[in-house]
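fwd from M.: "can u put these together and see what the complex looks like"

so here's what she sent:
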Amino acid sequence: KQEVTQIPAALSVPEGENLVLNCSFTDSAIYNLQWFRQDPGKGLTSLLLIQSSQREQTSGRLNASLDKSSGRSTLYIAASQPGDSATYLCAVSLVNNAGNMLTFGGGTRLMVKP
Amino acid sequence: SQTIHQWPATLVQPVGSPLSLECTVEGTSNPNLYWYRQAAGRGLQLLFYSVGIGQISSEVPQNLSASRPQDRQFILSSKKLLLSDSGFYLCAWRGLGGRARNEQFFGPGTRLTVL
């Protein structure tokens, strides 16, 4: 059974700092990995999708990397801003998965202080 | 562009009452659809998914059920709610083709409180 872990569970940083969020998964036979952002009381916003054949994806100040063999992904946020404060979730789908179901990590709650 | 709607946004129901949550998707056809629940202090749990009309797969045993009466409509139901059914219910769909291939997109969610 796929298990996804995110470390740290919570993180508080001053504005402007670069930061890294970590995600690890136990089964390396993944189809893809997705990073989401969730604001309090809201749905999930997809940030980046990395296919299993890719090593990284970039969108603006966000960069996500994938090391499938070691079962790890990182989300790098450059020059953090107070508006980046949210919970960040990673999720993976397995190769032999007819419904492309996602298994989620517990999330990292990020607070960026002005 | 594709849009996903959920209603109601919030709901307060007594224990033992029925439930019906609705999710609709616009701008795509034959999507995979999903129901997740996010309970307080817990992660996201997949409840049901559907790959087509009338095709429902359940991931966890519980007193909830799902139906897909139309291609872009997904309904979550219960005949009798339990206190443990309280949570944030999220509907999602899977994109097909191009850059969005296999990417999941989520709706705004329904906050359910069972008293």
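replying to her w this: Chain A touches chain B at residues 31-32, 34, 36, 41-46, 49, 51, 89, 91, 93, 98-102, 104-107 (CB under 8 Å).
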